[in-house]
């Protein structure tokens, strides 16, 4: 997706110290959102670290999502990217968003570190509004980072979906319970 030359995308970088460093210039007085405005986001692109990017153990990296504010409320520092579930990878629990008016894009970055063990890992994040309510992203609610550490099998994500797409990535495998993994000996023999 491209942004017209006259409108630079808003950018927020969230260092490990959990402080936002926006590179766009917000107005001197940030307008108050009107009552009844709506919150909505659209995933535009994985700017960095596409799904199943390989890493070594404990390798630092920066994940950047490009998002469009397609609601009628402007995003401001009262809005946040919040870790929800999966592998946290050193992400802050929550980080504020940079000022992003309706219709504009935001490049949202967080500093992460790959886990200390080999495997395929997914970390799910939510955008939250000033009332701490999850903001829908397309037809879903998660933005995610999916990486592979060492010699592991990649995480199978729904086709055509990436980052903040309508379908959430699969949860990490769980042992035991009604959906426990079992092998099919006939299939293995074939």
Question: What would you note in describing this structure?
Answer:
It is a single chain. By secondary structure, this protein is an all-beta fold. Helix content is 3%, strand content 33%. It contains one helix and ten strands, in the order E-E-E-E-E-E-E-E-E-E-H. The protein has a five-stranded mixed sheet, with no helix packed on it. Strands 4-10-9-6-7 form a five-stranded mixed sheet, with no helix packed on it. A hairpin with a 7-residue loop joins strand 6 and strand 7. The protein is elongated, with a radius of gyration of 18 Å.
Q: Supply Rg.
A: 18 Å
Q: So what's the overall shape?
A: elongated
Q: For the largest sheet, list the strands in their spatial order.
A: 2-1-8-5-3
> How many helices does DSSP assign?
1
Strand content bin:
25-35%
Summarize the structure.
The chain is mainly β.
Notable traits:
about 190 residues, 10 strands, 5-stranded mixed sheet
Task: Give the SSE layout.
Elements: E1 10-14, E2 21-22, E3 41-46, E4 53-55, E5 60-69, E6 80-86, E7 94-96, E8 105-113, E9 119-128, E10 143-149, H1 185-189
């Amino acid at each position: 997706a491209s942004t017209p030359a006259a409108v630079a995308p808003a950018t927020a970088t969230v260092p490990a110290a959990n402080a936002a460093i926006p590179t766009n210039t917000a107005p001197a007085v940030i307008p108050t959102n009107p009552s009844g405005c709506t919150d909505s986001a659209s995933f535009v692109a994985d700017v960095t670290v596409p799904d199943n990017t390989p890493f070594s153990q404990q390798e630092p990296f920066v994940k950047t999502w490009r998002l469009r504010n397609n609601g009628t409320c402007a995003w401001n520092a009262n809005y946040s990217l919040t870790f929800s579930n999966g592998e946290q990878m050193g992400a802050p629990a929550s980080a504020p968003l940079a000022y992003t008016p309706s219709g504009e894009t935001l490049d949202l970055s967080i500093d992460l570190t790959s886990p200390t063990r080999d495997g395929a890992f997914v970390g799910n994040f939510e955008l939250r509004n000033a009332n701490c309510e999850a903001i829908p992203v397309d037809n879903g609610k998660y933005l995610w980072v999916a990486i592979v550490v060492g010699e592991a099998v990649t995480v199978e994500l729904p086709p055509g979906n990436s980052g903040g797409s309508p379908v959430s990535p699969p949860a990490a495998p769980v042992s035991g319970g009604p959906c426990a993994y079992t092998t099919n000996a006939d299939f293995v023999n074939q």
